[in-house]
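request received
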Amino acid sequence: MPQAVVRVQAGDFDPGAELDLLLDRTSGAGGIGCFIGIVRGEAGGRPISAMTLEHYPGMTERAVLAIAEEAAERWHLLGTTVVHRVGRLLPGQRIVLVLAAAWHRAPALEATSFLIDWLKTKAPFWKKELFTDGSASWVAARTGDDEAASRWR
Amino acid sequence: MLRLLYFAWLRERLGRAEEDVAPPASVQTVGELIAWLGARESGRGAAFAEPGLIRAAVNQEFAGPETRLSPGDEVALFPPVTGG
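response:
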């Protein structure tokens, strides 16, 4: 069974160190797909000062692990890493890291795309944006995200 | 008895993150639970004003409105997820 490493944490992650760790625990990989999500500085044209990510402790880790295992099975991955941050984040900071190691580039890249699509729609995280004018609002789920996730059915 | 957990704007609108409830025997499914909570909260804010925007998990697995409930279940209610 390919190894999936999943972490939900408040602190930042080091993408280079995570790549090295993935390489260390896999052998034979021909490529690693990588996605890093970053907090944008605006939402709907309005500048934001921070974003807060709430989650469901316990279920989050299970849901993310299930997604990682689904990807590993579909694309015969040699290893995956998913690190998702929670709590208060500032524009420009990293939110999420997805790594997928495979024999060839196509499965590595496809699995990476699948992982981030499903993380957006099948794991219990909720984003709240805090605007520079002091107001705040919960991010509404996007139909586009559902459509992106459903193309992998 | 059911253990309820609320997240995101549902938690904020209700003013609490969790509670234990003992719904009547007629409440057998997730959908019936949401309807029962909505009736209980009516007149006390808009938490359940849009039941179509409420999703659920039972014992930490996503669950549709037809999912049957058992005593002691942990039922989480929340808006559609927005991670990633």
